[in-house]
Amino acid sequence: MAELDRLDAHYGLGASPYSPPPPRRGGLTNRGTVPAAIVALLLVGIVVALLPAAAPLRALLGVGERYGDRPAYTEGAGSYEFIATQDGSDEPVGYDPCRTIRIEINPDGAPDDHRELVEHAIDQIGGATGLDLEVVGETDDRDLDGRRQSVTGTAPPVLVAWLTEDDEPDLAGDVAGFAGSASVRVAGRWSYTTGIVVLDREDFADIEDAPNGDAQRQAIVDHEFGHLVGLGHVDDPNELMHAENVNQTEFGPGDREGLGRLGQIPCG
Ligand SMILES: [Zn+2]
Questions:
Q1: Cα of 240 to ligand 1 centre, how many Å?
Q2: I need a labelling partner for 7 at 20 to 30 A (CA). Which of 104, 165, 196, 225 fits?
Q3: How many domains is the chain built from?
Q4: Is this structure's pTM higher than 0.70?
C-alpha cells in the first residue's frame, strides 16, 4: 500500500488541520423556519448548517446517553491531526458519542472475510474512542453521493463498499481506499452524521497475496475507519494515519490520543 489514499491529499486534507469553512447562506432552506446552507465539500460531505431551533431534529436523531466509557490515552506520545475542528477551536469534529454509528456493508466484490475486516476496525475504533459502531446489515446500495449530500433528516447508515476504478475513478492507480464523513451544524457545533469507507477491490485482491498481506489489508481498513471518525493524516511514520503507510499496521500512540479525543466530545 505504497500510496494508501492519495484522495485525501486530492481533497486538500493532507497532514494539515482542516476546519469547515464558514457557512455560505442561501444554499438550502428547510421549510422556511430553519435556514440551512450548503457550506463546503469536506472529505466526502456537503456540510449543512442548522440553527439552534433545530432541537426537534436532535430528538429525531435519537440523542441520548453516552455509550462506552471514555478510554484513557497518553497525551503527547505521538502525532495526530483532525480532519476538521470546531469553529475557532482546536476541538475536533466527530460523531456524537451518544448515538450509534450504523454501518452497512455492500458485499459485492468484497473479500470473503470482509465482515471480519470491518468488525476488527470497529473493535479498534470503538475501543480507542468509546464510540458505538454497529454493522446493521448488508446492502446493495452503492450510493456514495447520497452520503455526500446534505443530511437534514435521519442520516443513512455509513456505507462500506469495495469498488473498482471503473466505479470510482478516484481509486485509480495505487489508491487503496478513501473515507470520510459528512457533517451538520447544530446549536453552533459541527457533528458527523454519516459517511463512506471505500476500498479498492483489485488492490485488496493483490495485497492478499503479498507478504503480510492480511495485516496490510486490515491496516488499510483500520486507517480508513480512522478517517471516518475524524482523524487526518500525519507525517509520523509510526502512526497508522501516515498517508503512505508501509510498515505500521496498528494504531500508534498519536492515533490513539486523537481517537480518544474524538470520543471525548460532548453529546449533541
Ligand atoms: Zn488516509
A1: 9
A2: 104
A3: 1
A4: yes
